[in-house]
Amino acid sequence: MKLRKRIRKDRPESWEVDLGMVHGKRVQRFFKNKAEAERFFTQVKEARRRDGDRALLETWEITEYRSAKAACKEMGIQLSEAMEVCRKYYLPPVAAPALPELLGLFLDSKTATGRRANYVTALKNSIGAFIGAHKGVELAALSRDVVAKYIYSMGVGPKSQLNTRGDIRSFFEWARKAKFLAKNPLVGDDGHIEIDEPERDKEITAFGVEEVAAILRACLRPEFRNLMGYVTAAVFLGVRPEEIKRSPLSSLHLRERTFVVLGLHAKTRSRRTIGMPRVAAVWFRLWRWYCPDMPAFAFPNLRKRFDALRKAAGITVWPHDVLRHTFGSMHLAAFEDEALTQKMMGHRPGEDTFVQHYRATYTVSGALLTKRIATEFWALTPKRVR
C-alpha cells in the first residue's frame, strides 16, 4: 500500500492511495486532499490487518459470494466442494493439438484480424521461444508456475519480462476462447506473476545542443550522409523510428514544409501532418542534394550504420528513444505549447504519455533544459555545426 501526491498540469492537485494487487487487479483510490487520503489509508490498513483482502471486496462481489453460498446450502454441500466438482469434471470440449501447431493457429488468428506483420513476428519469436523451452509438454500442463519459472530464467530486465508475460497470457486467452483450455492460468488472483516494475521514476533525459550538433556534424561526413534524412525526421520532427522506416519519400513535402505520417504507417493508425520548422527543411534539402538517388529514409543495414554514426559523433550515453525525447523536450521548452507538441508527436488528446515518458528536465550531461538551450537547438543549421 502506498500514499502519494499526484500533480498534473492544468488539473487540481490530488492524492492517491494505491492498494496494490487485489484479486488479480490493481486497486487505486483518489482523494481531493491529504487528510481524506490518510483517513482512508488508515482505515484500510486496520481492516486488512483484521480481515485480510476481504475488506477490499466490492459490494457486488460480496453479493455474488452470498448467493453462491446460499445455493450450495440448499443442495447440502459446501462452496469448496462445488469448486472441486467443477475442477474435476469441467474439461475442455476440444482436444488441443501440439503446441507448435497451436502457435500457428494463434498467429493466423492475429493476421486475420489485421495485425501488423511486425507485431505477429514479435509474437512468433516471443511465444515460440517459450514453446521451444517446453518441447513435448501439453498445453494443459503449462501452469502459472511453469510460466513464472521460464520468465525468471530469461535473464532480461523487468520490461522484457512484462512483455513476455503479456504475450503468453494472450496466447493462453486465445486458447481458452478456442475451447482448448478450461481456464487461462495467468488470469485471476492465483495467476498473477510478480515482476519488479521497470524504472518508471528514472529521470527522463534528452540530448543537449552539443550532442545533437556532434551527431549532425557526423552526418555531414560522406560515409554518413545517407543517414541525414532519418536523423532529421527523428530529432527535428519527433517521428517514431518505425514510422520513419515505413514512410515513403512522398511523405516529405519540402515546398509546403510538411511531413505526412499516413495512418497506414503510424503507430496509432491515425494520420498526422507535421509542420516542418525551418531547420528541418534546411537539413532535408541538403540530404536530397547529397543523396538524390536514395529511395527511402531507411535502408537494410540501418542499425549497423547508426551504431557507426554514434561512435563517429563520440556519443557514449544513448538512452532509449532519446532523439524523440529530445524533440519533445526542445519543442515544449522553445514554444511552450504542450498541446501542439503532443499533436506533432502523435499523442491523443488527454493522454499523459508525453509528460510521463518524453518530457525531459535535464540533458544527458546534467544541464538544466532551458528555453535558451532550446532556442540554440532550433538554430542548428549545417553552417552552425560545421
Describe this structure in words.
With 386 residues, the protein is mainly alpha-helical. It has three domains: 2-89, no CATH class; 99-191, Orthogonal Bundle (DNA polymerase, domain 1), CATH 1.10.150; 205-385, Intergrase catalytic core (hpI Integrase, Chain A). Helix content is 51%, strand content 9%. It has 17 helices and eight strands. It has helices at residues 34-51, 59-75, 79-89, 99-112, 117-132, 144-152, 158-177, 209-219, 228-237, 241-246, 278-290, 302-313, 322-335, 338-345, 353-357, 371-377, 382-385; strands at residues 2-6, 14-22, 25-31, 205-206, 252-253, 258-261, 272-275, 362-363. It has a three-stranded antiparallel β-sheet with strand order 1-2-3. A three-stranded antiparallel β-sheet has the order 5-6-7. Strands 4-8 form a two-stranded parallel ribbon. Helix 6 packs antiparallel against helix 7 (158-177). The longest helix has 20 residues, at 158-177. The radius of gyration is 27 Å and the shape is globular. The termini are far apart.
- The coarse silhouette is globular
What structural category arises from helix and sheet content?
Answer: mainly alpha
Q: How are the strands of the biggest sheet laid out side by side?
A: 1-2-3
The CATH architecture category of the largest domain equals: Orthogonal Bundle
Distance, first to last CA? 55 Å
Mean pLDDT: 85
Biggest β-sheet: count, sense, barrel?
3 strands, antiparallel
**Strand/helix succession:** EEEHHHHHHHEHHHEEEHHHHHEHH
By DSSP (H or I, 4+ residues per run), the number of helices equals 17
Whole-number tally of structural domains? 3
The whole-angstrom Rg is 27 Å
Helix share bin: 40-55%
Low-confidence stretches: none
